[in-house]
Amino acid sequence: MTEDYKIKVQNVTKEYDLFKTQADKLKSFFSVKTDVPHFWSLMGISFEVKPGEALGLIGVNGSGKSTISNIISGIIPQTTGLVDVRGDTSIVAINAGLKKNLTGRENIRLKSLMQGLTNEEIDDLMDEIIAFADIGDFVDQPVKSYSSGMKSRLGFSIAVHINPDILIIDEALSVGDDTFYQKCVDKIADFKKQGKTIIFVSHSLKQIEFLCDRVAWINYGKLRMIGKTDEVVSKYREFIKWFKKLSKKEKAKFEADQKQIQKDFDIDAYQKSVTDEEAKAHPEVKHMAAKIKKRFYGSVISEKMPKTSVLFTWLVTVAILLFCLVNVSGHPVTHIVKHPDSIVKPTKQLKLPTGVEKDNAKKATKKHHKKTHHKKHVKSEEK
Ligand SMILES: Nc1ncnc2c1ncn2[C@@H]1O[C@H](COP(=O)(O)OP(=O)(O)OP(=O)(O)O)[C@@H](O)[C@H]1O
């Protein structure tokens, strides 16, 4: 791999815990051992994208194209691996980025502000973005009332006008009409001329062939092939042809087997295999295991509490509880150490404040007087 890259991903994996309920999710946060099933959406992806290059991502549904695009855009974190992105990214996806309760105009402002543009810059760009998106009067309506084509046009228009270094287009051109598609293609060509980098995710092999310099084929969480567009697309077409010839039962079995591999993936075994491979390729490098460990976990923000933190949390909780009990019991610590059962036998009974006590006493005497007066009254009547 050369150093002349705009995007570099190395040994990137993504694990999802398949929790059944929110309670399971909460339990797993405090527990060291969990029996929640896992699913590895990505099982070790490595590639580079050069400046000015348009890289296509292809693969069947659920293969992990959006997952890797979202990791590169910083929308979701990876579980392991290095992700080095040199520049601002802007992602256009059918279902990402737009807030459905805000109007088109408000979304333009919000997304542009998030990309670091000033209000004046946004004012200057506003009409151009609206014109390119071609959404007419709908610009002042909430985005939830837009068709998928309108959302896609607006998302694309915002993304290209805020001038990012890296443009990621995830299936966004699949819902537009031909005129809009042509406008987008021209814009993408403009981008490439300016030396900007593009990642283009699509099921349309024609679009991929037309727009991309190289293609990566992601297959059930793994990089099956990366290379020149015509070579990779041709191999992918062969695969699709083979798959389509399978019977319904064979197709289901093939898919189930692939998903099972993604459930059984062993991250430690993968880390070891990467370490062994690299040690073989570079025998001169010392401490390879530590280097690979750093590559795997060095830049990763864990979504789970490490086991040591879980144990520490439990220890602190128990210590606070004991401290409270010792305080309430009134016994000195040395006494509690000798007689642990005394922790639940306080030295003093809880007393009510003196004012309350007096009030209660007065009430009790009044009640008593009333009772005895009533008894006397009854007795005299009997007489
Ligand atoms: N939040 C999640 N929890 C559990 N599994 C998830 C989650 N998000 C994605 N996945 C799984 O990860 C795998 C990859 O999904 P992804 O959306 O990246 O695939 P894709 O190649 O973009 O698919 P498509 O072409 O249909 O858009 C799928 O099996 C999906 O079910």
Automatic annotation (TrEMBL):
Keywords: ATP-binding, Cell membrane, Membrane, Nucleotide-binding, Translocase, Transmembrane, Transmembrane helix, Transport. It comes from the Bacteria. Pfam families: ABC_tran (PF00005). Belongs to the ABC transporter superfamily. Gene3D superfamilies: P-loop containing nucleotide triphosphate hydrolases. This is ABC transporter ATP-binding protein. Residues 7-245 form the ABC transporter domain. Coiled coil: none annotated. The chain crosses the membrane at residues 311-328. Residues 363-383 have a biased composition (Basic residues). GO terms for cellular component: membrane. The keyword Magnesium does not apply. CDD domains: ABC_KpsT_Wzt. GO terms for molecular function: ABC-type transporter activity; ATP binding; ATP hydrolysis activity. Signal peptide: none annotated. SMART domains: AAA. It comes from Apilactobacillus bombintestini. Residues 349-383 are annotated as: Disordered.
